[in-house]
Design a protein that fits this description.
alpha+beta, six-stranded antiparallel beta sheet, 6 strands
Length: 115
């Protein structure tokens, strides 16, 4: 993990998907790519089944975990199916996620253009 671009938001925890399976999550992190888009990376301890990134219950539990850490906003959304991996779920964040990410170290480059 590169400290300049990888920002860890949460360490390990367990979540449950819509089928009632326990999912071991190693970490939740964001990657600061420098262009204002925030994708949320959920690192899994074991390979996941296809489509887990769309599981509403799992997304709600990940969102709840983030709220316990200070995020105040709606649930996250499924990310692009093409960028999902067996041990990594990528979720899209709503606009309301930006202030939380900035508090955690994300550099909001879009604010430079608001003048």
């Amino acid at each position: 993990m590169n400290q300049d671009t990888d920002i860890q938001l949460s360490g390990p925890f367990k979540a449950t998907d819509g089928a009632g399976r326990a999912i071991d999550i190693k970490a939740i992190r964001i990657f600061d790519e420098g262009y204002g888009v925030i994708d949320l990376y959920v690192d899994l301890a074991a390979p996941a089944s296809d489509g887990l990134h769309k599981d509403k219950k799992l997304i709600a539990e990940i969102s709840a975990r983030l709220r316990s850490l200070g995020y105040a906003g709606p649930d996250l959304a499924p990310g692009d199916p093409v960028i999902q991996e067996k041990k990594l779920i990528v979720l899209d964040t709503p606009d309301e996620f930006l202030p939380f990410a900035v508090r955690k170290g994300f550099k909001d480059l879009t604010s430079e253009f608001d003048e």
